[in-house]
Amino acid sequence: MESSRSLEHVLSMQGGEDDASYVKNCYGPAAALALSKPMLTSAINSIKLTEGYSSHLKIADLGCAIGDNTFSTVDTVVEVLQQKLAVIDGGTEPETEFEVFFSDLPSNDFNTLFRSLDEKVNGSSRKYFAAGVPGSFYKRLFPKGALHVVVTMTALQWLSQIPERVMEKGSKSWNKGRVWIEGAEKEVVEAYAEQSDKDLVEFLKCRKEEIVVGGVLFMLMGGRPSGSENQIGDPDSSLKHPFTTLMDQAWQDLVDEGLIEEEKRDSFNIPVYFRTTEEIATAIDRCGGFKIEKMENLKVADHMNGKQEELMKDPDSYGRDRANYAQAGLKPTVQAYLGPDLTRKLFKRYAIRAAADKEILNKNCFYHMIAVSAIRV
Q: Are 368 and 36 in contact (CB under 8 A)?
């Protein structure tokens, strides 16, 4: 799973609509989307549309995943454009047609996505025509100058691959004892940072080709505060983040119980890197072709903050909820590596650990997301 090709075929949010699905556990991204909506609206309003504007505007949502978050983002873009066009047309209803491309890796659950879309528009006037585009957003996906608006929401923190140096057993960058980079040796973090920079530049180069001059690129991605060496902004949040303490403990349980070897655990790495605003600005500057209109670090509160007393009454339920949240983002990737049986055991131990740790339960948790609006110049 270390190669980009193999990762493309397994990396996805958990499909379907059961308790561990992304559809049922996307409240974190939903909160980030809500915080970034004013900035997204402002970005769409910055598009220069005059008389003689195109009668066919094209929008792409890259890393679309599934669920209501996907549709709410696209609805916002289309509604703002419609309002803008109505002003240009003197208050009359615009005749412009909108085409929306929902794009994600081939492993994404496009069946659930488009079934939900069909249910959403059934019986109502369709605001846009929709199409699916499978493929990695680290590669070209559309013809030159084809798109007017590109959005990517809570997806760019996922890397194209695990850095090759991290997979070299015995090297300083071998991530022994953990499955993510929070608290890892500096050589591991540096390898991830290099991969992150390479990926973001490749993403921007592709979008530079695909977006028309004057078009908008809006990015919302997992981030970290400027100057922070840690991926998570504060210790309490680090304890509760789904990729950190509980995840490492659950994998260690499998090792301790003799279900997997240590090397099996150490060879699995979560392909996520949280950037700073400086890292993003540097990549945009090096790529060229875009002017940053605005960039902001958003602090997003965990949806369970303030519910400690309620959750303490039923810690087992809390444990299951936390395990479901982790599975929503990781289960397909873990299952491709461990198989179904060990994957079930891993997340069962994750739930048990979460239910038993009263210290974690009483911590308030915050996530950092970075929103960027840029104009193609």
A: no
